């Protein structure tokens, strides 16, 4: 039994929209993924998204709170967290619940712990899943494998990333009257974009700009418009073009460049334009505004229409003389089958689902709930003849009351978020014992293994529906209760796909069993046939011996006739004549097979003769004998065939036994694979993959991160994205040496910026060993040394006349060669810690002693800076300001900030740049080597300019400064108006050409009218929304956006606000909160320059909703505007770095060249990884790592690797077996069991990707693992 419900309805959309609005507004979009890249499969009902374009329209939106940064416990791993040192089983966030009127709610004892963990994690991060035409909800059931994340995104994903990345989710709206259309608004002001999700029919996902002009979409289609239909407002006949007039219809196209036709996609109509503030309850109410009598008459009218349509259709179908234009009978379909008779009745539920009922937007579920609440049967058949006694006028009063009160109550609870969580309805699966017994009855000799029970906790259930509210018709069913509707939906869809996988696994298991039964039956049939053949040969041979004399006579007659030259036909005639004369020898001849030299004789079987039978005659058996042999010779041949058949029987039985064993082994393998598929169905939130795992990486013994590229493309990516100031670039003069980067550590100064800490010599040596081992020196067993340079010495600028290939770079200046290192690597296991206590327990595991010395030096320097007097600081500031003013007047621009004392500390690991090295000989080839150095480039030589920057002359720089100062009061709108005036009221040349210079075909009148209606309905005037606000709030906001025009008159620019933001302000609970938000915005506008008033006001509204106004200065104090101190530069910088960390997880690095000191530090994240976990630690998952063996000296699980001939896959299997090998008498503690379980969960591909190459395992126990592998191979 499959799920009854597999996509969202209107109520689900309302509930999920409310949930997302409460929990995700203000989150920034970090990235967009295709569903298949994160292991998320579609439900099969989604539309759009062709091959390679998402997972059938499934897309994942990674959102994060920019002020919150990364969570200590990621949501993707929250449910996999361990408790008391053990791995916690996968838990659904089902909350304890009692029985509800016959329905059973399943309890979950660990639900509260998981809910707390999930809530703590979800406050910072969220992954929003959107499937076109099906669903949208936050999810934790996805995988972030490096293989999937490295695949090329679909074009639509790239388009979404281009327009939406780094924008906040400002609002989410359900369009229409509970329609299945959702509008996600990202960004504010000029950066506003709309992502429209359609969840009906084939579905669609449409990206629009702020004016709802389509920028990209999944599926292009058209709405066909007939005259007088929706969208034409009755005058469509006059607006038709000539072509449309001939065809009788027009088309409204949904394509790139057009305005989204909201009046065709939703129930919004042109009448809604005059009532922009109307709610779904204010829509066409139908029977909700009627009394019982009018509702009863309306029902009779609708039933009379149904009766007329039914009679007309049935009369046309039953007319035997009527044929269609193809000559076929109208009473039959194209396949010849008789058409189904159309009934003249409707069930009550279908009657209320008619569009003019006024409650059709409730949907089938809610309408059925209201009908049951009124005490009626939803499936009661109504017709014009039986409505008087089936649903009399008195019953309509209760029905209307239930529809009005109960329906509005449910909708209000869902929209307000008071629905009470989420629910999954399920049905318990039937036991498989019956099927097993049937299989055992078919084949009693089969000995198939007993499979392990599926660990998926929903394996015994068939999930039917997900609901945000338990309706009346669901109370008798079993259900699971969850904390929120979001969790319930996520669990349902994740296990819905698992149900399909389980069904396929069950089918494969049944096929394997059936195949085994068929093989056994076939082998048994062959043996039985051999036995029957043996019995036949034995009996025939005995009969031939008993009647040998008569057989010899018959054979003699036949042979003599043939010897005399008698024809075959004449011989047959002679035999027939003699048989007629009752010649006993002729009567024995049954048939002559002279072409085969055989004759079939009818011999009486005296041994099996029953003298007291019906006729008293012995049975006759036909025996085929050769005419060239005597009777005894024929008998001897038959006995020889009998003995050969006996031997064949023995061989067949042996072969059957072997074949059956092979079939059983294959069946076991198939059953094991099916069981594995069932076990994989256990949908666990898979661990988060770090950005550096797609490269070759390890962590040094003093906690530095080392990253190396695996190919030329990764080398290019490493240098362009991840090489920061202060990092070390390592390479070796060996063929195949990879680009290796040693990531430096950073400390935060008091001004909020980060400062680079010098690299340690030990980290450089270990990174150099890693570089050598990742080159061709490993295979050739050549001991050599690597070198390192600083980041500014590496560039992509080739010498004149040469060019650099992908993965090749220029190295200028001195190379710092490291000591030669031995070729010794190791494969170890790192474990991700899950709580703060465990992280603190391993804080000093990889201590950097050089860092301790540097911290002392920095502390002393900061102390000296603090001792400087305030007066000296003020004088210094004044002098610097005066000098800056003087420089500005003279046209001199500062070269950069004055280096601080901390920045002037000499880098103890930096080489002297003034040392020249030998000039290399010029090469004939114009292609530079992968790593090329220019020894004649010294420190004084200018570095190549930054990409994308143009150096202006001194006069132009001064002119730009003066213009910026002169027009500082103008914003973008003012400048646009001035430029329009300068061009004589015309737009610029670029605007005349259109977007991208593309020629757009002329739109039809209906298309233009649909666009006008969309703009009128969705692009609202902020002034109209502002007029609905309180007068005081309106005045405060007006002060924020009041500017002076050219004549000096004040003008209020309400268009600087988005209408949605003003609506959010009006929806705040109290007037005090509205005034506090407006005062806060006014204070900000007085003290700082605000470029986007909508974004600032939306942020203030979110802050007040989250923290309240207890700290807010309601009197509008001009000092700060609130009672707490504003964020310091350090806090703001910390937020920027937290957001950079979120982007860096996906390899997205925003290179802010003006803030090179604000780079992300890796220490905090890699500090959560340990190589020697304890039993008290909370461990989330295991990560394989390959590093120099000296680095792994403290790891619990490690093996030593040297150059050898064992391939990576086989070596990984041996290493894992060594990790899991334990002594038989040794009893494992809980921590070791936990570690082994996590190691088993690591994918085999992860081990292979981490391995260095062809190796030889030299650790203790390697020979045993090798021997075991050989035994398995045999």
Automatic annotation (TrEMBL):
Residues 909-921 have a biased composition (Acidic residues). Keywords: Coiled coil, Cytoplasm. It is found in: Cytoplasm. Residues 70-82, 104-118 have a biased composition (Low complexity). InterPro entries: NFACT-C, NFACT_RNA-bd, RQC_Subunit_NEMF. Residues 239-248, 1121-1131 have a biased composition (Basic and acidic residues). Residues 955-965 have a biased composition (Basic residues). Residues 315-324, 932-952 have a biased composition (Polar residues). Residues 70-118, 226-248, 315-335, 890-976, 1112-1131 are annotated as: Disordered. Residues 694-813 form the NFACT RNA-binding domain. Residues 1161-1257 form the NFACT protein C-terminal domain. One of its GO terms (cellular component) is cytoplasm. Gene3D superfamilies: ibrinogen binding protein from staphylococcus aureus domain. It holds the Pfam family NFACT-R_1. Residues 653-684 form a coiled coil. PANTHER family: NUCLEAR EXPORT MEDIATOR FACTOR NEMF, RIBOSOME QUALITY CONTROL COMPLEX SUBUNIT NEMF. Belongs to the NEMF family. This is NFACT RNA-binding domain-containing protein. It comes from Discostella pseudostelligera.
